[in-house]
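User
Class, as today's exercise, I want you to study this protein, comparing sequence with structure tokens, and judge whether sequence predicts the tokens.
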Amino acid sequence: MEQPGHFFWKKSPFIKLLLAFATGSWLQWQVQVSPIFWIILLISGSIFWGCNFFLPLFKLYRFRPVTGISILIIFLAAGGLLTRMKDIRYHPGRAGDPQYKADFLLVKLNENPVSKTNSFKAEASVVTAFSKEKQIPLKGQIILYFKKDSTGSLPASASSLSYGSCLLIKNNLQTIQSSGNPGGFDYARYQLFRGISLQCFLQPTHFLVLQEKKINPLQQWLISSRERLVRLLRKYIPGEKEKGLAEALLIGYKDDLDKDLVQSYSNTGVVHIIAISGLHLGIIYWLLGLLFLPLLKKRKSKWLHPLLVITGLWIFSLLAGAQPSVLRSALMFSMIVAGESLGRKNTTFNSLACSALILLLINPFWLWDLGFQLSYTAVASILIFMRPVYNLLYFPNKLVDFIWKMNAVTLAAQILTLPLSIYHFHQFPTLFFLSNLLAVPLSSIILLAAIFLCVIAWLPGPAFLLGQLIGWLIRMMNHAVTSIEKLPGAVWDGLLINQVQVVFLFGSIACFSYWLMEKRSKALKAGLLTTCCFLLIRSYSFLQSEKQKKIIVYNVPGKTAIDFIDGRNLFHTGNTNGAANDFIRQFHLRPSRIIQRAKPVASLPELRQQHNMFAFHDKRILLLSPGYQYAPTAKRQKIDVLVISGNPRLYMTKLIAALDIRQVVSDGTAPAWKKNYWLKDCDSLQIPFHDVSTKGAFVMNLN
């Protein structure tokens, strides 16, 4: 085995280029640098690099480091500049630009409408805009929501909507917003990275479906093919959960996945089998290689083998939705096939870095995609640690050895993905070894069977029997996963680490691994140092959480949710209790409480409550809800925070005659039209007004 340093920096140049490009992208997003800076940096790097070609040979060798640094500067600048160019917020003439006033928009659907809880959702492209019979050249991607009718279907006027349909819609565009709750999922940023920042909620009277259709033949074929495959799986595989999982395994279609089942797979560390990744592409690669194997036996047809295999891989990748993990795997296998056909054996690390760089050149915002991060980290972890882990145990029996090899791959993948998993999911599946031992081979068999089902679908009898078998296998896998989830200590939950801790944790893993594999004492010392830094930062965060005193009014649509936090304990008030609100607690409240390192308790020593009045330390909070009657006192009382819930009969000018209000907060239950009146009243009275629906959660620190 070659020295890691030599291997990385001499034989894998794409790693250095990838790091430079990713650094430029990250800096641009964090700092929002002017494009002029990146252009100057790009030109400077190009000049330094170009000047080296005019140097005499004896000087060229002396200035070789300058050449390398110049190339890195070029890729650094390219990453920053491309990220700026891809940021739709800076695109001129985009839909939603305040300087362009449009009454109507002509849009084209980019997909078939997908059913959601109360509406149908579809992404669309703005073709043009109209204002008082004037055409405005606006572009951009938006999300449309069509309200369901009484039967739960699309309105009659929209029943014919499909990919390529053109609509004339009323310009009621709204900016996509996140909940703004501490630690919550940043939905606005997620859509922004996809090139979407606007959405529109359409009533039946707000749009007109045109006869015209604008269709890309390839896109149309992909959509219709995915729909045919989905219909086929739904036809032959019994059970709703089983159908949804089969669709996700085969083509990455996740709209029918059961949420509780996905959570079970996540808690047991096998959620990766649901997302199309290297495991699935590896099986497809093996099948294609086996199918076109006869072509290699003849010299004239030998060149067709790699061409057909690569074509098949990319067709499957497009059918699977072209997600970053799928594209990464397709690029990797394509490079392997191309290298083998040309008789060249490139380093796997270099190929991995090259594929990542290509994807980021297409879309630099994939750098923040969780699937992109986990897939590349997992593959790198397997490449580094699989062999050392596998060599820990020896089994003479071939079957047992094969099973151990599969689990060695799983264990190796977990080593480098551990910091990212804890950072993003705040949990660690302690029994992942057992769950992967069962789920990985079963999912591989299910995928092969699903592919075979598509091949024999024209034979109803065999297809029916195979569908029943697939359903039984999926039920068995689901039962195994959910049973493991129920075991004591299956999930280490509530873990919190920040970005700095992630860096030190990666550093500790790298140093200790290098020490174990290369027996270098310096690596051991560096590992101990990084571990100490990690523990110190983590200890400091615990000490800070012990001192915290906070009031949080959450942004929960249709609900009142308030947390009083004192140290690592919190008292909750609101109407989010009950089994029906498990999703609210998991999605809105749990991330915040993990960040605060606080757990609910029955009472707090420093919190006193009298009806809707709360006294917390030296602050007074009044929860004003419908039906609550405030009894005026002789002395005007100070209210630090007035929380308005629902739609009470409220006249702010009369209320301040009895109360000295310092801050007004409107929770997620109040109607929007009423909030506008309250906002105007507060502005005239010079009282700060915070609407959680538009500004996110209200957080008051009492320290």
Remarks:
- The chain has 23 helices and 24 strands.
